[in-house]
Amino acid sequence: MEKTRRVSTRGIIFKDGKLLCQRLKNGRNGKVRDYWCTPGGGLDIGEPLRDGLYREMIEETGIAPKIGKLLFIQQFSEDGTKEEMDFFFHIENPEDYEVIDLSATSHGELEIEHVEFIVPREHTVLPKFLQTIDIQASIDGSEPTLVYSYL
Asked: What is the DSSP string of 78-100?
């Protein structure tokens, strides 16, 4: 059995102790998505990380991101056959995301049920480490990128 890899980029938009998250609509298979996640998505083959994040943020929010430093990397596999890698970048213009009109986006209404700033510790957020870490310290600090591997 051949293993595959999916690479995604995600934006960390943090303001006043709250993280911009979205609740996705149910999957094509009808699977209920009862969690929050940060905006972003999969890269096209050969697409640079920052370019992919910029594209995904425009598709999902309609707002141009100011992409900052790489904060987190997550590596995991849900079933042992498909490895997933997510790269989380700080978005430096959170004030621009206070109002998001999903009807003005190319993918927002198709994929997203709701988007808002939430307190991560008070909700089910994926990946789970976003519920427990000090996001502001990661943004402000000079520590190296945090890597979470669940293989």
From this structure: SSSSEEEEEEEEEES-GGGGSS-
Domain that holds residue 89: 4-150
C-alpha torsion sign, points 132, 135, 140, 146 = positive
Residue pair 31/78 in contact (Cβ under 8 Å)? The answer is: no
pLDDT for 24-49, tens place per residue? 987 666 676 889 999 999 999 999 99
Structurally, the chain folds into a number of domains equal to 1
Query: Residue 76's domain is classified under what CATH number?
Result: 3.90.79.10
Specify the pLDDT at position 55: 97
